Amino acid sequence: xxxxxxxxxxxxxxxxxxxxxxxxxxxxxxxxxxxxxxxxxxxxxxxxxxxxxxxxxxxxxxxxxxxxxxxxxxxxxxxxxxxxxxxxxxxxxxxxxxxxxxxxxxxxxxxxxxxxxxxxxxxxxxxxxxxxxxxxxxxxxxxxxxxxxxxxxxxxxxxxxxxxxxxxxxxxxxxxxxxxxxxxxxxxxxxxxxxxxxxxxxxxxxxxxxxxxxxxxxxxxxxxxxxxxxxxxxxxxxxxxxxxxxxxxxxxxxxxxxxxxxxxxxxxxxxxxxxxxxxxxxxxxxxxxxxxxxxxxxxxxxxxxxxxxxxxxxxxxxxxxxxxxxx
Amino acid sequence: xxxxxxxxxxxxxxxxxxxxxxxxxxxxxxxxxxxxxxxxxxxxxxxxxxxxxxxxxxxxxxxxxxxxxxxxxxxxxxxxxxxxxxxxxxxxxxxxxxxxxxxxxxxxxxxxxxxxxxxxxxxxxxxxxxxxxxxxxxxxxxxxxxxxxxxxxxxxxxxxxxxxxxxxxxxxxxxxxxxxxxxxxxxxxxxxxxxxxxxxxxxxxxxxxxxxxxxxxxxxxxxxxxxxxxxxxxxxxxxxxxxxxxxxxxxxxxxxxxxxxxxxxxxxxxxxxxxxxxxxxxxxxx
Lengths: 327, 286
Hints:
The structure holds 2 protein chains of 2 kinds.
Chain A: H1 2-21, H2 29-37, H3 43-77, H4 89-103, H5 105-108, H6 112-132, H7 138-162, H8 172-177, H9 185-203, H10 206-212, H11 216-221, H12 226-248, H13 254-262, H14 270-295, H15 303-326
Helix pairs in contact in A: 1-3, 1-14, 2-3, 3-9, 3-12, 3-13, 3-14, 4-6, 4-7, 4-12, 6-7, 6-12, 9-12, 10-14, 13-14
Chain B: H1 3-18, E1 36-38, H2 41-50, E2 56-60, H3 72-75, E3 79-81, H4 85-90, E4 95-99, H5 104-112, E5 117-120, H6 126-140, H7 143-160, E6 169-173, E7 178-179, H8 185-192, E8 196-197, H9 198-201, E9 208-209, H10 212-218, E10 222-226, H11 242-250, E11 253-256, H12 258-261, H13 268-284
Parallel strand pairs in B: 1-2, 1-4, 2-3, 4-5, 6-8, 6-10, 10-11
Antiparallel strand pairs in B: 7-9
Helix pairs in contact in B: 2-6, 6-7, 7-13
């Protein structure tokens, strides 16, 4: 277990460093890291501190948020298919963010953007919980997720198409697929506080989720307040995913892939899976963000493209396995 | 569109429908077209400049918007179309002028309906602006007016090309981080005003996305940025990114006025004039 912790931490640190030294402007790794820590008075310091550093920090934080919420939802719903992207939480958070930008709330009130995304995400998670229920089958969960995703995506497209701004309609791709290009430190300050709240809510779920594996009655007998757990899952996921989506768009499959890979390594304990998935999610998103920059250095390949290329086949595999189990 | 205008276009349609059909077989060297509809912002403006009084019937709705059109006021005198085959057909034109980037389906349908369509490609250089003026003259059978306009364009351009002491390095930077290089009209406007273009240095002569860090490392002397549209968008947020904000504070800047920049019309001269003014200020200051 400790080995896994060191391994994952090492991987995250390594990928974070690669993320910092990689960019369309060809600058040596040593030179760029030096400019990050000392103000050289050249544009290089500006590039490192205002472009690459926020990009790395956001990839780290957003990846951790997605991995953690995936693990928490899967533990709570006892269903390996629960992923904030797949069940519509990201899409509804994106709708909240788009509404904040288009109504001007985001421009007039500093935390308007992440808070509106949070509100959208709360509606999304609550709807899924309501429709699928804690003991709902995989089928109901996925169907509810598809319905909520499509509805939120349709409203997002509608709002952006109705905007008088000619660029707005092109932004649909960003909100559906996510991207980290051209973010700044202000985005970090906007998203990080809310993400930390989400991490705190979800991170303290370990004991409850472990107890829930024995069934709800057993968990209640062990003194776990199920209502409180449910609220913690809903608000924690909404805060983490809402903040992430507000600044980077909807990025799918991280919360699906990471817990799936790590589950056997933590002995299938949902509590231990939480922190492992947070680290794993950070590593996966950093790696994806490195990949989009290697594939298309100056373009803006969307992050969701890479995560879906990895995640969708795994999703198919999981569906196949679930079907076999049900038969 | 106001109810009044809708009513007017319906009435107009009805009157036109009652009139005898359009001259469907227009010979190549036949009579000049008398009911011309233009459906592209750039051909709209060229047509308004070149057409004989009463010859041009309708222009696109973009031509009536001051944000995108240098002739928004003149455009008020024409029926406004939205580039839809149905409304254009009902106007019974004997010539439709479209741009290369007009909706293909619409152009194909109009051709199928036996309406002659002239397609003009956009101008990517100042030479091509001149060519388009001449082409518009041929299309409208107004060669003389077009040649006059072209001669005036040449004369004004020659007057603008004054002695350049030093070419400052400028960066064009638009929403979503787009820039325009030397193979675009915007790039040509920039170089005519006496600037070197960062986009060419970083290998984007046809324009495209210039990553923020490339912009910062290129260290331009002037930042010419896209102006904002109404409504909010995250695409334009990049113009407020701390890196761009720092460049804006530190450098002399100018904003692109879309109406003078997007179309290959004589109005590009106005854009060149304004930019050259910025350059002269830069030359005199140390």
